[in-house]
Amino acid sequence: MAHHRSAQKRLRQTVKRTAINRSRRSRIRTYLKKVEQAVASGDPDAARTALRAAEPEIRRGVNKGVLKLNTASRRISRLTRKVNEVEAASRT
Fold it and tell me: Which of 2, 6, 12, 59 has the greatest number of CB atoms lying within 10 Å of its CB?
């Protein structure tokens, strides 16, 4: 347990930030799962809509410091590729 007042305050802040960051990370994962489910269902419209909703949420995670930029870019790129494959498969 922290003994100095500044250390006690820092502990309170850390607990608060941890809860906020955990919530943000969970929210991002939820959006990722929605895209994955839409891709798995094979519905290109649902997949595109889910991707459009997920991308800003992932980018917001970068701005808030929950994700690194390259990680977010990689995830968006992979999701986009999957959605494009679903769209291509539905056209043929």
Answer: 59
The CATH number of residue 15's host domain is: 1.20.58.110
Cβ-Cβ contacts under 8 Å for 55 (sequence gap 6 or more): 76
Number of domain units in the chain: 1
Angle in degrees, 0-180, between the axes of helices 5-41 and 69-91, rounded to the nearest 10: 10
Pairwise CA distance, residues 59 & 53, whole Å = 11
- Give the angle subtended at the CA of 84 by the CAs of 80 and 89, to the nearest 5°: 150
Model pTM score: 0.88
Phi, psi values for residue 86, rounded to 5°: -65, -45
**Domain interval for residue 69:** 5-91
